[in-house]
Amino acid sequence: MQTKAELPGHARVLKIAVPIVLSNVTVPILGAVDTGVVGQMGLAAPIGAVGIGAIILSALYWMFGFLRMGTTGLASQAIGAGEQGELAALLTRALMIGGGAGVALILLQMPLFWLAFHFAPASAEVEGMARDYLQIRIWSAPAAIALFGIIGWLIAQERTRAVLLLQLWMNGVNILLDLVFVLQFGWGVSGVALATFIAEWSGLALGLWLCRGIFATPAWRHWAQVFDRARLRVMAAVNGDILIRSLLLEAMLVSFMFFGAGFGDEVLAANQVLLQFLVIASYGLDGFAFAAETLVGQAMGARNRAGLRQAARLAGFWTAVTAVLAAAGFALTGGWIIDLMTTATEVRDTARLYMPWLVALPVLGCGAFLLDGVFIGATATRDMRNMMALCFVIYAVAAAAFVPLWGNHGLWAALLLAFVARGVTLGLRYPALEARAA
């Protein structure tokens, strides 16, 4: 771990980032298998039910994504400061918050599902299957949300290979049980849900085992430390800021899709296809953002200004390299990827028309990904929240001005401007982080 005498190097950044990138790659594979196995039933309704059910739960769980980011920032600072007792207490708090949030979702499942289907109506057949899916999967909510905290805690200690192992285990179990429950036993949508339920609880068991070293000490149940009011207030403030920032980002992306819907079905479908390129780019960029979270947090905890600057510089270098590679890959293979995603000629042609925006986005927007990681590691979450609010306003004003002039090109220009603005505004706040570290 980082001390005042140590500065991180390229090898250390890559050691943290590469397993995260590989872990991210497994996520779309699981989604494809879930869809593929129910697709073998030869009916449209099961595919739609799994899709809408997964989206509803992802939206509910995503609200607790602050637990992953906040835990990484706080735990990495505890490591840098040499506060092993606080490191243990953070894991206990994260598990308690995750478990409590999951129990709350179980208790509130009926009104939550009613609200979800009210805003995302489906046919009676699809909704019935989706409800069956949700009523099974919701019982693993405590495990799924608690895993956010475990993953954040492991990342803070640079144990990203353990995170990769955890992801491979859960997705591997899920895929294997998908094949058995659906193709062998014929359990359909319920089989897919049960496979995920088992995978998530087994993932929590593996995650706890990976953290077993801390449970061998009494520090994790030092309740005076766990429930220390000052520490709890800091954790609540950090997590609250991240939640608001994430809600604003989600609102921006959802409004982007709503604006696109006004240009017709082909443009809406093309925008949805192109947003997958943003997801692909984020798989690589997130790895180095996570490295920045860990190393910046440790430097901040150790009051190591030089270490903070070195961590930001090296993570920035690899973020830029990844962004350029992503842009080049999109420019060379974008058309082929679009053709893989859709067979509709009109959607393919429309997506190609707007593809240049996705070539530019990784390069011009990479600063937003990097600095999110830097500011999470420094737990400067108030700045993240405030700059995200400012960027949301910039996006809204730009969309209002550009869309009437340039249509969907104007919409993409507004989104790109928002990503650039996030990088610029956070960059302007970066010197304050170094001052805090000093």
Q: What does it look like?
A:
The chain is mostly helical and 438 residues long. It folds into 2 domains: 7-227, no CATH class; 238-438, no CATH class. Helices cover 87% and strands 0% of the residues. It contains 17 helices and no strands. Helix 2 packs across helix 6, helix 3 packs parallel to helix 7 (141-156) and helix 12 runs antiparallel to helix 13 (265-301). The two termini are 19 Å apart. 47% of the residues are buried. The mean pLDDT is 90.
In brief, what are we looking at here?
With 438 residues, this protein is mainly α. The protein is 87% helix and 0% strand.
Layout of strands and helices, then pairs:
Layout: H1 10-39, H2 44-62, H3 66-80, H4 84-107, H5 109-119, H6 124-137, H7 141-156, H8 160-184, H9 188-210, H10 212-215, H11 223-226, H12 229-261, H13 265-301, H14 305-341, H15 345-377, H16 381-406, H17 408-437
Helix pairs in contact: 1-2, 1-8, 1-13, 2-6, 2-9, 3-4, 3-7, 3-12, 3-13, 4-7, 6-9, 7-9, 8-9, 12-13, 12-16, 12-17, 13-14, 13-15, 13-17, 14-15, 14-17, 15-17, 16-17
Our measurement of the CA-to-CA distance between the termini, rounded to an integer number of angstroms, reads 19 Å
Stretches where pLDDT falls below 50 for ≥5 residues? none
CA-atom Rg in angstroms:
22 Å
| Beta-strand segment tally | 0
List keywords for this structure.
mainly alpha; globular; 2 domains; 438 residues
